[in-house]
Design brief:
The chain is built from three helices and four strands. It is of the alpha+beta class. The chain is elongated. The strands form two sheets. The chain has a two-stranded antiparallel ribbon. Strands 3-4 form a two-stranded antiparallel sheet. β1 and β2 form a beta hairpin. Keywords: Isomerase. This is DNA topoisomerase. InterPro entries: Topo_IA_cen_sub1, Topo_IA_cen_sub2, Topo_IA_core_domain. GO terms for molecular function: isomerase activity.
Length: 120
Amino acid sequence: MFTDGTHEFKIKGDTPLTPSFRRYEPKKSDENDDDSKTLPSFSQGELVSFTWVIDNKMTKAPPRYTIDSLNAYLKAPFAKSSSAQDNDDSPADDSELYEAVKKAWRLAPLQRGQDLSLNA
């Protein structure tokens, strides 16, 4: 926690105590991104000078569907995803619907100029 006398500021991040594997494999320069949360070591009472930089970044909403989730749905449309099971509080059982659709409806192969029809 930092203070300027009137305001208190909290920073979050990590300070490595030992170099561990970085001793053998140092961080590459392209890995030094702005989102790095590695902090320098400070001692209590140390005077620190810094410059405020206002960064105009936009937040993004979490993606609802990813390519992997859509592909998984296309492979098994009646399988519930783990996130859907976690969020679903209802005791609904889709096994009867799954079996009915599996047995009864198959898409007929289309020939040129034909309309889509369902075979029962």
